[in-house]
Amino acid sequence: MADISAELVKTLREQTGAGFMDCKRALTEADGDLEKATLILREKGLAAAAKKSSRDAREGLVSSYIHTGGRVGVLIEVNCETDFVARTDEFQKLVRDLAVQVAGLDAQYVDADHVPSDVLAAKQAEFLADESVQKKPENIRQQIVDGQLKKWYSQVCLYDQPFRDEERTVRELITEKIATIGENIRVRRFTRYALGEEL
C-alpha cells in the first residue's frame, strides 16, 4: 500500500473540490495514483449527484448577463436547495457561466422535456418529410429521425449543448457541480433578448 502524503491529498482536493477524507480514501483505494483517485471520486460524485437530482430545489438566484455592446442580454433562474449555497462564489460563477452560454449559443429550451409537444411534432414531421430520409427503407426512417432530433436538441436545448469549447455538455457540468457542491442544482428558466429580433 502506498504512503499517502498530506501534499498528495491537498493536490487531489485542489483538482476535484472533494473533502479531505474522501480524497484520502480515494488515494488509498488507488494506491497513491492521482489519476485513478480522480476517477474514483468522479464516479462516487456522479452517483451521489444522481441521488440528489430528485431533491427539491427552491432557493437559488435570478441573474442577468448583458453581452459587451449591449446587443444581447439574458435573464436566468438557477435553483439550488439552500440560500447558503446560492451565496457561494462557486454557485454564482456557475449561474454566470450558464447565462453566458444562453447568450452565446441561443438556447431556446432548458432541456428536451421543456420542448412544447407541438414544436416537437412539427420538427419530427419536418425531419421525416426530408427527401433523404424518404429514400431510406421505411424500417430505419424513425432511427434517422431520432438521430436528427438528438442533434437538434444539442443546438436548442441548454442541457444538451456542449459547454463552451469543451467535450462535456451543460448537463454534465451541472451534474459535476451537484457532486462538488452537494446540493441539487437545476436551471428553472431563462429568457434571451437580442436587439432588433422578431417578436
SSE layout:
Layout: H1 6-16, H2 20-29, H3 34-52, E1 59-66, E2 72-80, H4 83-86, H5 89-105, H6 117-129, H7 131-134, H8 138-156, H9 170-181, E3 186-194
Antiparallel strand pairs: 1-2, 2-3
Helix pairs in contact: 1-2, 1-3, 2-3, 3-9, 5-9, 6-8
Termini separation comes to: 65 Å
Fraction in helix = 40-55%
Overall pLDDT metric: 86
The geometry reads as globular
Oligomeric state? single chain
**Biggest β-sheet strands, sense, barrel:** 3 strands, antiparallel
What would you note in describing this structure?
With 199 residues, this protein is α+β, with helices and mostly antiparallel strands. Helix content is 55%, strand content 13%. The model has no long low-confidence stretch (mean pLDDT 86). A three-stranded antiparallel beta sheet has the order 1-2-3. It starts with 5 loop residues before the first helix and ends in a 5-residue tail after the last strand.
Short description:
With 199 residues, the protein is α+β, with helices and mostly antiparallel strands. 55% of the residues lie in helices and 13% in strands. The chain is built from 9 helices and 3 strands; from the N terminus they run H-H-H-E-E-H-H-H-H-H-H-E.
What key phrases describe this protein's structure?
single chain, 199 residues, alpha+beta, 3-stranded antiparallel sheet, 9 helices, 55% helix, globular
